[in-house]
Specification:
By secondary structure, this protein is an alpha+beta fold. It folds into 2 domains: 290 residues, Rossmann fold, CATH 3.40.50.150; 59 residues, Archaeosine Trna-guanine Transglycosylase, Chain: A, domain 4 (Roll), CATH 2.30.130. The protein contains 14 helices and 22 strands. The strands form 4 sheets. Strands 4, 5, 6, 7, 8, 9, 10, 11, 12 and 15 form a 10-stranded mixed β-sheet that branches. It has a 5-stranded mixed β-sheet with strand order 18-20-21-22-19. It is globular and about 75 Å long. Belongs to the class I-like SAM-binding methyltransferase superfamily. RsmB/NOP family. Pfam families: Methyltr_RsmB-F (PF01189), Methyltr_RsmF_N (PF17125), Methyltranf_PUA (PF13636), RsmF_methylt_CI (PF17126).
Length: 461
């Protein structure tokens, strides 16, 4: 049985009244957490083996149910496991193809993958995560999802601010928080909780948001979300944003009565705080969540500090270079065998080489001084007199119907994920895509009816 902190119980009895508070406590203690998943619209094959009868309200291609990280649907980037309530912030940001969007606290990648779908490979997604270990997971999930237009960074928000002043059309800040909304699925969140921790989170959220506002274009949209109930981290933060930066609190229409309004009386009584949304576990959508949508004025008063020019004295990164004719020929010998999605059609003119890695950049990073983990689509690696396609390319090629495919059996599927060579009966030779149940998993190379395994070592089971 979950034991809630005494201070937490007293706090929400005071805020909600004893009857409503007891309903919340019962939902946390006695009701099972909700699990959900989304189906990737960027992939050609969307026919999953899971039950798709129980739809999550409002969110497209989203269903209640539990998936396994060992299933081909997950390995291929066809599904993403995500708390149902956590799907709403990226839905609310409503990114349009061609826009520049920043997901500032992006790991593990659920919201970034959803934004990437909205952009449809057009425009720019900057997905940032300050933690190196979590940033690695973010990169893996975006590559698995088949995203071509992401710049993945691992840096502090204030460092990004100097590089991207007034740059983004839309910014999502899913802020680090006290995690009260995760209590019924995360015992550590309960153990870590205190009112002092709530206030420390508020201080950190203000620092992150101050950086975010500096990167937002005039009339740009900021979506702020947390997975906590705490007014200090929700209504009070939105009130602070509205007063300090003159951001307008926008209404959010979802078309469902399962979501509650924010509480103006839990902050400064600004009536527009009722435009914000609260997801309570008692409503049975998912775990606890808060979301607000705000708009920057057309002429923001806030002065900008820092710019890319200020960083010219820093040590320059190694230059990216365009491939020569011989290198183009090596790359074409592989790529021309596959059906390329639209994002890759102009690879000959768009691709660059850096340390022998061939990639199509999502963003020109000349003079950009941030920690970059990935930029756009890595096509593969140039080695002596040959080109070796990369794993991300396989995930992107899954957007189109392909013919150079080896379909695995149940036993060979397990062997492939282990990194083993596999005996195959095929007339195909050279690099091929490897699939199981029509879900593309990665590359292999066939010679003498043996499939050499190119599934990345870091992903193997």
């Amino acid at each position: 049985m979950i034991k809630l902190p005494d201070d937490f119980v007293r706090k929400y009895q005071k805020l909600l009244g004893k009857d409503e508070a007891n309903k919340l406590f019962t939902a946390i203690k006695s009701q099972p957490s909700k699990k959900g998943y989304r189906i990737n619209s960027l992939k050609e094959n969307k026919q999953v083996s899971y039950n798709t009868q129980s739809h999550i309200p409002v969110i497209p291609n989203a269903f209640y149910g539990e998936i396994s990280g060992h299933d081909p649907e997950w390995i291929s980037g066809t599904v993403y496991s995500q708390d149902p309530s956590a799907m709403f912030p990226s839905y609310i940001i409503n990114a349009k193809p061609g826009e520049r969007v920043l997901d500032l606290c992006a790991a593990p990648g659920g919201k970034s993958t959803a934004i990437a779908e909205q952009l449809q490979s057009r425009g720019l997604l900057v997905a940032n995560e300050i933690s190196p270990s979590r940033a690695k997971v973010l990169r893996e999930n975006l590559e698995r999802w088949g995203v071509t237009n992401a710049l993945i960074t691992n840096d502090k928000p204030e460092n990004l601010t100097r590089q991207f002043p007034r740059f983004f059309d839309k910014i999502l800040v899913d802020a680090p928080c006290s995690g009260e909304g995760m209590f019924r699925k995360d015992q550590q969140a309960i153990e870590y909780w205190s009112q002092d921790y709530v206030m420390k989170c508020q201080e950190r959220q203000k620092k992150i948001l101050t950086a975010a506002v500096k990167m937002l274009k005039p009339e740009g949209t900021l979506v702020y979300s947390t997975c906590t109930f705490s007014p200090e981290e929700n209504e009070e933060i939105i009130s602070w944003l509205s007063q300090k930066f003159e951001l307008e609190i926008l209404p959010i229409e979802l078309g469902t009565n399962q979501v509650a309004k924010g509480q103006p009386n839990w902050a400064d009584h600004n009536k527009k705080l009722a435009n914000t949304l609260r997801f309570w576990p008692t409503a049975a959508i998912g775990e606890g969540q808060f979301v607000a949508k705000l708009k920057l004025p057309a002429k923001p008063e806030m002065s900008m500090t820092g710019s890319r020019k200020e960083n010219k004295k820093r040590k320059r990164r190694l230059a990216n270079i365009a491939p020569n004719k011989a290198e183009i020929k090596l790359i074409a010998a592989i790529l021309d065998q596959f059906n390329l999605p639209s994002a890759l059609l102009n690879w000959r003119s768009d691709c660059l080489i850096r340390n022998n890695h061939v990639f199509i950049p999502a963003q020109d990073t000349t003079g950009l001084h941030v920690r970059i983990l990935a930029n756009g689509t890595e096509l593969g690696l140039l080695k002596k007199n040959r080109f070796e396609p990369g794993h991300q390319l396989a995930m992107v090629l899954a957007a189109q119907k392909q013919t150079r495919i080896i379909n695995l059996t149940a036993n060979s599927y397990t062997s492939y994920l282990h990194g083993e060579a596999i005996k195959v009966n095929t007339d195909l030779k050279g690099f091929v895509l490897v699939s199981y149940h029509n879900f593309i998993l990665g590359f292999g190379k066939v010679a003498n009816q043996v499939l050499k395994n190119y599934y990345p070592k870091g992903l193997r089971f």
